[in-house]
UniProtKB/TrEMBL annotation:
<dbReference type="GO" id="GO:0008017">
    <property type="term" value="F:microtubule binding"/>
</dbReference>
<dbReference type="GO" id="GO:0007018">
    <property type="term" value="P:microtubule-based movement"/>
</dbReference>
<keyword id="KW-0067">ATP-binding</keyword>
<dbReference type="InterPro" id="IPR001752">
    <property type="entry name" value="Kinesin_motor_dom"/>
</dbReference>
<protein>
    <recommendedName>
        <fullName>Kinesin-like protein</fullName>
    </recommendedName>
</protein>
<keyword id="KW-0493">Microtubule</keyword>
<dbReference type="InterPro" id="IPR036961">
    <property type="entry name" value="Kinesin_motor_dom_sf"/>
</dbReference>
<feature type="binding site">
    <location>
        <begin position="93"/>
        <end position="100"/>
    </location>
    <ligand>
        <name>ATP</name>
    </ligand>
</feature>
<comment type="similarity">
    <text>Belongs to the TRAFAC class myosin-kinesin ATPase superfamily. Kinesin family.</text>
</comment>
<dbReference type="GO" id="GO:0016887">
    <property type="term" value="F:ATP hydrolysis activity"/>
</dbReference>
<dbReference type="GO" id="GO:0003777">
    <property type="term" value="F:microtubule motor activity"/>
</dbReference>
<keyword id="KW-0505">Motor protein</keyword>
<dbReference type="InterPro" id="IPR027640">
    <property type="entry name" value="Kinesin-like_fam"/>
</dbReference>
<dbReference type="InterPro" id="IPR019821">
    <property type="entry name" value="Kinesin_motor_CS"/>
</dbReference>
<dbReference type="GO" id="GO:0005871">
    <property type="term" value="C:kinesin complex"/>
</dbReference>
<dbReference type="GO" id="GO:0005524">
    <property type="term" value="F:ATP binding"/>
</dbReference>
<keyword id="KW-0547">Nucleotide-binding</keyword>
Amino acid sequence: MQPFSVFVRWRPLPPDASDPAELTRNYEPHPSNGRISIALPRQSPQARPWKSSHAFTHIFEASDTSRAVFDAVVAPTLPRVLTGGTGTVFAYGHSGSGKSHTIIGYDFEHREQYGLCLAAAQHLLDALHALNANNPDSSPSSSSALGLGLRMYELRGNVAFDLLNDRSKCHIREGGDGKTHIRGQTEVLEHGRVRVRPIATKACWSVEEFLAHLGGGLARRATGSSTVHDLSSRTHAVLEVEIVSRALLDARAAVVERESEFVPVAKRATDVYLEESLRGLVKDAEGKYVPNPEYQVNQARIDAAEAKKAEFQGYVDDAVRKVEEVLRTASHPCLGGKLVLVDLAGSEFYHDKTIAAVPRPKPSPQEQRVGRQINTDLLALKEVIRARAARAARIPYRSSPLTMVLREHFQGTTGQGADACSRMILTVSPALGQGAATVNTLKYGSLVGGVAPGK
């Protein structure tokens, strides 16, 4: 069994395509995973067709519906989410190949045309409503009622933008606990309190609420031009769909508040220590600091400030334990289960002289820098996936901000059947003019899906 399932979805040619010619392609099925071969018209008659490894779980043709894609790619991960596990689904492909259409979808009126995210939300909410109905303590207004929490943010280099909080700029940091945290802007409150909120979570108790928040986040997503697509997404969009309750959300909010109260107390303890330390020193004739014989360091004052700091640290620790308690004592183990969908930025592959293509303007220096960063992220992601599949001793999560952010989601599936919960769908175009980009996308998927499990 493959450690990372990879699917391929061919998009249809656009109706206004100037060149109706399509790539010559062939799919060779296999009991486990199939392979794809692509024949490209090249200037050299000796050129051979490209053929993938046995890496692809399933190939979706342009005629396959979004519902069929959901049933094969996402639906098998949801039972694990409903038992508190983590599922991760990536969409990878060159600009204009249909990644956003697959993850998000554009037809919100018809359930059969929902993208993977909305279809998953519908499925999960139906299951949660059934659980709530069977639990007498989970009335719609109770703190234990189960719903969905939606987080949406996009990554560009070392910066994240919170799409559910007016695109506020956030920073990616690794904490002392070894986890990666995305923190918003610092708010200075009264009495010296400093509050740093995490990525916003919008609670959703119905599909209508979920759709409203999803649409609002999408409206704030940045787009830009590329050499392939005029409205290409130039960032990686991460959508986290988590099973939550009001009690869990309130407990997490309390942690943020306790941390804000801790900051001025901790700063005061540091100030007191520095004040007493400096008063206890004096410069001698040579300009060196030596003990001040005229001042006795007030250790009692330092100890009192440190005791106050420890007291407020205890409040923070209690709040963190409350979150853990809510998760541990939930009426159903699904609380905290998470589905993460990642709409990766369009991979950039420039002109291939061996393929007849529509001339495109040369990318600007800014576009080239953005493209290099995107490709660096995508390379890092590939290396992490391969290292995990091969059970390498070291997983290079720190290679890029993208893999740092995804670290928790990858590790959430450890020991829970990562093969069943980590999936990628490659979106590709049959257009002859995009043949080089399509082959590069398939090469990426072949490397990711074809790696053998570690022994």
